[in-house]
Design brief:
Layout: H1 4-33, H2 42-60, H3 66-78, H4 81-106, H5 112-134, H6 136-150, E1 167-170, H7 172-177, H8 179-185, E2 192-196, H9 197-207, H10 212-230, E3 235-239, H11 249-260, E4 264-266, H12 269-277, E5 282-284, H13 285-292, E6 301-309, E7 316-319, E8 325-328, E9 338-349, E10 352-359
Parallel strand pairs: 1-2, 1-4, 2-3, 4-5, 8-10
Antiparallel strand pairs: 6-7, 6-9, 7-8, 9-10
Helix pairs in contact: 1-2, 4-5, 9-10
């Protein structure tokens, strides 16, 4: 099957060959009329320049056809839709202003009437694109407010429709973790959840891994994505947007989040630190989990089931519903029993929260 590059090269070779033939005929006729007439015939001129034109078209046509198109396409893929729309609006506004100013400028004496309108178009087109892209957030805020006013939609201050235009990027680790599905169903993640194609590719690579544990984790991530897409209350979008020149998925996510001006949802510690250093907002699932755990004070009573022995003598260990570990003094005697305990100390560690307690009847 012929590629687009090959077809473009052939078309360029044909076009430049024809142009070379005409140029060769012209130069041949000029050479015959010259007092230093060459021994070469007009036909030979045409053949030589035609072959040179075909060679030129075959080699150089992609330089000013397909390659500029691909560069432009890569740039447009990296640019967010909001920035692109703002640039187009700015260009239109700049051209309108330039058109209004071109008429009085054309009345100036020569050569200003020919030069100044052209420079006016260039100047205001550039200013329009630059100013509107710099203030794109303000522009879309005004447009959204105007649309809500016309459609009689309540303002977001009353709580309805808040965050509808928000975009959140998902990391591979948080998809594999699985808690994202439950969090999204609660409504605490408003807006659109965007999953870039390179994140999906990494997830698929993990699901196809030879290691059994990695393969199970990857498949669990695929199931979580399927649940998110099937839930009508959650907006999930797979995006083909990519970052050229970067191979690491975490680096791509950080760059993409900066370009789209949106947060990254993750539970990866390293990605969390890298993103924060570069000024990108991070939503960490582990931090959310620790934040919503129940707050207990020494002396409070709670019910816990002792499921194993502790590290120290006579200790028993149980867990609350949110996964918080409860270390019970003299709890070894109550293995596989649910008892009431009194909190003695609450310890916050990097791994989470740990509660120390003793049986209620020993308090």
């Amino acid at each position: 099957m012929f590629t687009s590059d090959f077809i473009i090269r052939l078309l360029g070779a044909v076009v430049f060959c024809i142009a070379g033939v005409f140029l060769g005929v012209t130069l041949g006729n000029m050479a015959r009329l010259s007092p230093w007439a060459s021994i070469l015939s007009v036909d030979l001129y045409a053949v030589v320049f035609g072959l040179l034109g075909a060679l030129f078209g075959l080699i150089l046509t992609p330089m000013f056809t397909t390659k500029p198109y691909r560069l432009l396409r890569r740039y447009l893929v990296r640019v967010s839709a909001q920035r692109l729309v703002a640039a187009m609006i700015g260009l239109i506004v700049g051209l309108i202003i330039a058109a209004l100013l071109s008429f009085p400028l054309s009345l100036l004496p020569s050569p200003f009437n020919n030069i100044l309108p052209f420079f006016c178009v260039l100047l205001f087109a550039y200013l329009g694109v630059t100013i509107f892209t710099m203030r794109q957030d303000d522009l879309f805020t005004i447009i959204s407010s105007f649309r809500r006013t016309n459609q009689n939609v309540p303002d977001s201050s009353d709580g309805s429709g808040w965050g509808a235009s928000r975009t959140i990027l998902l990391d591979t680790s948080v998809i594999i973790d699985g808690r994202i599905a439950d969090i999204a169903r609660t409504g605490f993640l408003p807006g659109t959840i965007v999953i870039p194609r390179f994140v999906l590719n990494e997830l698929q690579y993990i699901a196809d891994s030879a290691d059994n544990l990695r393969r199970q984790r990857g498949r669990r991530g695929m199931e979580v994505l399927s649940q998110l897409q099937k839930d009508p209350s959650i907006t999930v979008r797979l995006s083909d947007i990519d970052v050229e020149g970067v191979r690491d998925v975490d680096d791509k996510l950080v760059i993409l989040a900066r370009q789209m001006r949106c947060p990254i949802l993750t539970n990866d510690f390293n990605l969390n630190r890298i993103a924060e250093l570069q000024g990108v907002t991070v939503l960490n699932v582990n931090e959310l989990t620790n934040a919503v755990k129940s707050v207990l004070l020494p002396g409070e009573l709670l019910s816990v089931r002792i499921i194993q022995e502790g590290k120290e003598l006579e200790q028993g260990v149980g867990y609350l519903d949110d996964g918080t570990m409860v270390v019970v003094e003299n709890g070894r005697h109550y293995l596989n029993q649910e008892i009431n305990v009194s909190v003695t100390k609450v310890l916050q560690t990097a791994a989470g929260r740990m509660i120390f307690a003793r049986p209620e009847d020993e308090s």
